[in-house]
Amino acid sequence: MADTPDRPPTTEFLAALSVARNATVGLAVGVALAVLAYVYRVFALAGPTADTRGSPVLFALLAVTLALAAAAVVAVGLTLVSAYRLAHEQ
Fold this sequence. Notes:
The chain is mostly helical.
């Protein structure tokens, strides 16, 4: 069949929106934000007075949650910007 496309339409749509790049940028931003928050919080716990309200392990789990949430928000935001630009360019 000569009229079938080389790539599925969904793959072309995701490539046009730069979803893979946006997810990579989002993950980098999320991890950076989580590392900064974790380091700040753990060093605040180890400050001049001992704080017994949490442990570094608990804050590590919270940092993972923060990283994934921030990555999703940034990736979706960048994808929406890509979609907006693509819609106005055609």
